[in-house]
């Protein structure tokens, strides 16, 4: 596939060279600032509101004491100087107590200013206290408050008239102190959270990103595989999974490189090999003209073998190109095909390896004869090589058994031997190219090719679980009747 950008599409910038505008560190810093600000507001707002309520409550408490003193004295018997001192201690202009539907003015200074705000301390909700606190902070100086609270000695209520400026000055001073302390604490907590999260999460994630980007530049370089840090949390699991994935990818790329080198070598020898086989075919054509009975008996088999070899050479690179040619299916005599396989491998009656064929009478398979021949040849050759590994051979002990039967619309062919069997460690990758060979020096292509050819017929090739030896089962289903009729008409 081409990686060139299409017309009108900007070229894709590799991830390793892409500039990150807002990385995890920046986002974490922004979130930390936002959370510190929220914490600052959560601390500052109720604290200032409570300070205002406390300040006003202190003034009401002082007014209650002054009211008790003034109330206990005879009327008009308190000197004016004492009255002024009491009012100064309260910080009020007027102190009034209401009892029994009457208002009694206990003390009064000069003519009080007009009332700007009314504050009832007997029933103040939290949100109302917050709103009034910020109203005091944002308002200018010079306003006058009428504050109402509980009266002493069974009175209905107590009210005082005070200037708001001392309250606002005290609140500003207190707000600055609280804001400074809470800001320092919030910044310290935010810094601890930021650096902790950065150390625990951002740095490992950045390391993962950098290692993935570096591996992406050179996936064949095993030195760029990430080394897990040994952490036991999710990041450690991700590092181990990434290391396993990169290791498997490096191995797969190495195998692909070997496969490409093998394909290049095969393509170079393919031409010369075909020429040699063509020359051998010309010689076999001349042998057909000889009147010798033995030559006449073996020459057709030799010519068929040469034709097959030339056909194999033409399809040598098909495995590397991704798939074999589609099967040219027809009715195939299974017994005759097995006999041809036996003769090709030299398993005559006097051979050291025994041969037993148990095929249903007149059994035919709807398959490509050449491809089915290749499948059977690969399986039987593997069985012969497994049995030859324990020479000297004895036909009664070293035996290859091939059975064939029809089960409904499926033809099943079993190829089994009495050899040592396939090791358990190799069974998982038995049909993987270059990996499933159990024989020393084997290429590991025989079974993958056979499996690909069987699957092209819509069938299945699998290893059966048996107590001794090795048994492969080939299952090839028939095509629907309509498909077979169309193929027959096409060949006609």
Could you give a quick summary of the protein structure above?
The chain is an alpha+beta fold. The chain has 11 helices and 12 strands.
Strands, helices and their partners?
Blueprint: H1 24-72, H2 80-90, E1 94-99, E2 102-108, E3 117-120, H3 126-138, E4 144-149, E5 157-163, H4 165-217, H5 234-288, H6 293-314, E6 330-333, H7 334-344, E7 354-359, E8 364-367, H8 369-388, E9 399-407, E10 410-417, H9 424-427, H10 446-456, E11 460-463, E12 470-477, H11 481-491
Parallel strand pairs: 3-4, 7-9
Antiparallel strand pairs: 1-2, 1-5, 4-5, 6-8, 9-10, 10-12, 11-12
Helix pairs in contact: 1-2, 1-3, 1-4, 4-5, 5-6, 7-8, 8-10
